[in-house]
Amino acid sequence: MLLLKVLTCILFCYLAFSILYLLVVAIAGKFGRTTRFPESRLHKRILVLIPSYREDSIIVDTARKAAAHNYPRDKFEVMVVADKLQSATVEALRQIPVQVLEVDVNMKSRSVHAALNHQKEDQFDVVMLLDADNIMQDDCLAKVNDAFQQGCQALQCH
Questions:
Q1: DSSP assigned state of 123
Q2: H-type alpha helices, 74-120
Q3: Could you tell me what percent of the chain has a pLDDT over 70?
């Protein structure tokens, strides 16, 4: 009986600490500042890379919205890395103005590696990774461009 009470107390403390930690991080996130970079007139060449492993139900919509982004069309490309996608999905992707690279690697990191090896040296200035269910905000690539024009080496978008 005593052992059960001790285990219950340990479990309660563990869960309470976990919840308290998440609460503190969430509250602290509300007080953080967002860095605003000055608008740049120059446009870096951006590759929007979307690795997709068996995500047939959402990848076509994501690729279509990414390809329709409001960044100068000659300054960005969208590439879908199709890992185990159905042939109908691959064909639908080819109808959108996106590159499709078919791979059979069963892992997102290997898909990204294959796509980067597929690119020519210095073809793009920035590579942006999107998850297959991510949709970019209208001015996302412009903001990414502004940050990289100011010297950023890496950036995480929300």
A1: S
A2: 87-95, 108-118
A3: 100
Cα end-to-end span (Å), the chain: 49
Tokens 């600490």 belong to 17
Instruction: Name the 3-class secondary structure at 12.
Output: helix
Buried b (16+ CB within 10 A) or exposed e, 80-116: bbbbebeeebbebbeebebbbbebebeebebbbebbe
Cα–Cα nearest to 129, from 29, 39, 52: 52
The residue among 65, 52, 153 whose CA lies nearest residue 105 is: 52
Q: Measured in whole angstroms, how far is the alpha carbon of residue 125 from the centre of its chain?
A: 17
Per-residue pLDDT of 30-83, as tens digits, reads 887 778 899 999 999 999 999 999 999 999 999 999 999 999 999 999 999 999
Say if residues 46 and 145 touch (Cβ distance below 8 Å): yes
In whole angstroms, what is the distance from residue 51 CA to residue 39 CA?
29
| Whole-number percent of the chain with pLDDT over 90 | 85
